Structures are given as structure tokens and as C-alpha cells.
Amino acid sequence: MPRIDLETRGVVKRYAGLVAVDALDIAVRRGSFFSILGPSGCGKTTLLRMIAGFLEPDSGDVLIGGQSMARVAPNRRPVNMVFQHLALFPMMTVGQNVGYGLARRGLARKDIEQRVGAMLERVNLPGSQGKRIDQLSGGQKQRIAIARSLVLEPTLLLLDEPLGALDLKLREHMKIELKALQADFGTTFVYITHDQSEALVLSDHVAVMHNGRFEQVGTPQSLYYEPQTPFVAGFVGANNRITGSASQVSGDLVEVTTEAGLRLFARRRGEVLPGAAVTAFVRPEVATLARSISSLPANQPRYQGTLASLLFDGANSAVLVREQASQTQFHIALPQTGQFADLAVGEAVAFGFDPERALCFADAA
Description:
Elements: E1 4-15, E2 18-29, E3 33-37, H1 44-52, E4 59-64, E5 67-68, E6 79-82, H2 94-104, H3 109-122, H4 138-150, E7 156-160, H5 168-185, E8 188-193, H6 196-202, E9 205-210, E10 213-218, H7 220-225, H8 230-235, E11 240-250, E12 253-257, E13 263-269, E14 277-282, E15 288-290, E16 302-311, E17 318-323, E18 329-333, E19 348-352, E20 359-362
Parallel strand pairs: 3-8, 3-9, 6-7, 7-8, 13-20
Antiparallel strand pairs: 1-2, 1-4, 4-5, 9-10, 11-12, 11-14, 12-13, 14-20, 15-19, 16-17, 16-19, 17-18
Helix pairs in contact: 2-3, 2-4, 4-5
């Protein structure tokens, strides 16, 4: 059986009677990159602080390396934490920052210098011991914060939105660096973020959190392609969200009719009864765009519309199309073939999608 580095058993935390974390159970395998993804206020930072020992759960238990952490102080836990603002000491050199925890443990100066030098080599900052913190770029500071934590050889490294303060280009670069560092060290990373792109790119497994509970835990691929709840379908990745009623259910396919008169078909998730209020989700890349309706597959539902907006973003370019009859707006990804490079706002277009690649959920009663 795989070794478990982090386990929570029925962990609950309340604030003034409000439940912030609601009876959560998780098991994180040794050496994995595990992310907790959710919107602000969902309870993810509260959970992380309980793992670190800064908060005590009202009930339940946290186990690290198989040992209960009940009444174990933060500084006695085999855990280190990297915060969004890094908390590096500006009056210390890089070497002093990385070696700070080792010095607190009473290691000899020679041993500290050796371990700090080896750690800086591993994070691709060799020979930077004497530099001041203000001489470093944002990405270098990030690596120093991680090095300062990993040099102590923790069982877990907790990361609380560590890329949030970086600009977009550096954030994209640091995603790749973080993934490589975790694979190199083999330390178990537990990563908190509200950014679904970070969670999907970095993680072996992701827990999607909402209102203090986990909606779904799985691989990035399973969350994206097979969401189990409407919240996960809407939160993970872009989606066209269509609300209506189930006018017909035939096997796994549901015919959805909206108040505006749009009719579409989607694969059901869970039980969907005829006449029930439902929500369908169609990802932008699932839809096929064409200049004429005859260019689309005849065995799939097809729609005519008007190009309402061009969203140019290189390889991520898309368009907004208003369906002709209902005026429902669809977000549709553009193929990277160049065939639509001359599209103009107001142009008549057609689109369709395979109903098997759209999902339909019954709305909560």
C-alpha cells in the first residue's frame, strides 16, 4: 500500500457558529503534489492552518506521517510553510535566510554552509549565498523561500497561494519550476490556490473545495473531463452554462429547453427526470465553428448565429456567438488553423457540438 504523509479524519472548524471546514477526510500519498482548489472563503486556508498547527480543529484529527498532531505545536510538526508574500528576512543574506532554520536547530556553522550550498545548487541558484534579498528577482525570491523550507527536510511542504503576488508571465514560468522542484525533491507538497490553472498544471491530485467541503477529489483530467457536480463543472475550466428544463430524457441523453427557446442535448450526470430543472455545460473547445451550417456534421444539433465578439489571445483565442433564435451567447474556442483569421464582428456563422461531450445536471431541489 502507498505511504500516506497527510491524513485528516472528520476535521471540523467553526467560527462564531459558522462552519468553515465541515468534516473533511483526505489522504495525501507520500511524494505527491496535492492541491486544494476553491474560491475565496471556501475554507481552504483554514484547513491549511489546521494542518500547520496554527489552528486547532473543533473535532477530528490531523495525522502527519501516520502520527496524530493533536496538541502538537506548529514548531514541533514535520511541516514547513511557504506564504504568498514569502516572509524572507530582508536584513539577512540569501545564505542566512536559507540556513536560518538550521541555525535555530543548533547545527554547526560548517554543516549549515554545506547544506545551504547544496540546497542552492538544487534550486538553480548556486553561489548566491552572499547576495542580499533585494538583489533577487521575484522568481529567485520564490526559490529561496522554498529552499529555506526544504533544507529542513520536512515531511510536508505547505504552500499558501505562493504565486499570487507574481506577474502573469513569471507566474506561468514558476508553475513549471515548482512542478520540477517537487519532482526532484520528492517531498509531499500541499498547495492552496483559487487559480484552477495552477491546480491543474501542478498537481497529481486536486480537491475542489466549496462551502467547507470537498465537492470532488481526483486527477486534473478527471475533474476537467468528468466533473461530478455542477460546481466542479463550472469552476474547473471555462464552460458555457445553460439553464433550462429536461424536456426529454432518452437513456443518458437529455434534451434541454431554455426559457428563450434554445434546445440542446447533453449527457446526463446522475439522475435527471423529465420536467426537472437542469443545468447543461458545454466547454468552448467542444463546439465546432463554421461559416455555413452545411459545413457542420449533419448527425449533430446545429445552430446559426452572429459573431458578437472576438477574443484574441494567441493560441487561446475564442469568439462569442449569439444563437440566432434564442439570442443565447456561446463562448467558442477558435481552432489554431488560421481559417478564421479574417472573422469580423457581426458576421453570420454556424456552430454545433457532440452532445456526448456536453454534460447535464439536475438542479438541487
